[in-house]
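FW: tagging you since you asked about this chain on Friday. Here's the raw sequence from the shared folder, copied in full. Didn't touch anything.
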Amino acid sequence: MKFYRNPEIRRSIWLWALWLAAFAAAAACLDWRFGALSSAFGLLCGALHFVPTFRRYRALAELSLEIDEILHGSVGLDLDRFAEGELAVLQSEIYKMTVRLREQAENLKKDKVYLADSIADISHQIRTPLTSINLVVNFLGQEGLEEERRIALVQELRGLLGRIDWLIGTLLKLSRLDAGTVRFARSQVNVREMLGRAAQPVEIPMDLRGQRLVLKSSGEETFYGDLAWTTEAVENILKNCMEHTPEGGCITAEARETPIFTEIVISDTGEGIDEKDLPRLFERFYRGEHAAEGSAGIGLALARMIVTEQDGSLKAGNRPGGGAEFTIRFYRATV
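HL: got it, structure written out here
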């Protein structure tokens, strides 16, 4: 910003020069000493006005250059230059605004990368069962197919379609939670009733594997939350435990209530969780080295989102005697 290119400054200089010339000429008509004194006084007034104005415009020029540097990647700022005054306040506010804009731009870039990765993961998860479905359909189209073989293929086809349906449904639930469109009910939930509902979908698969499910609850434990959504979260945890528990194993769900929280501990007799998988266990699409075949890696992520949205916590670990352990806590107040 050039000081003398400003029309306001040029206009002020011309007005001041005309005023000074007229005033000095009028004073000189009376006495040349009055004219000289008037000229000196006018020059002093002009200096008192234009020197601070020049400094203010120079500060604005530096501020403009600083904003340009911030917007193009520089985040450095010399705090020693800050001082009391309107210009310093303006400088501070503009700096904060530009930094906030840069943060938003970086967040948008991260969101784009995350979206691209998520789409790739979703495509991979859906493509796998679709490929299997295509193969099954080709087998079913063969002539002279035995009835027993046909029944087996139809059952496999139903399982693959069910997997796709579950995958799409879970992804839709995750997207609703991300968008904040889910409204959780806030009613008293009986833990034993909730555990019974969550166990129903896994009872038959567990029976086929020879696994046992033990529910330890007095029937008096309660918490305030959403029954349907919490049932969904616990069902996903039970399903995960079932997939990692060997045949003949046992899964235990134990509830207890304290004045501070209601706790549900779900454990299994499997091989447990690898230590390097624990930090990323609840990440979407994360599959550890010992992940079950066909696992999409989103069930536990959905479970944690559901619990945390209800002011609860969900942690994973390993039992001292072996096996995985998931601890859910619903607090009676926000902690």
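FW: The chain has seven helices and seven strands.
HL: agreed, and The CA atoms of residues 128 and 294 lie 9 Å apart.
FW: great, closing this out.
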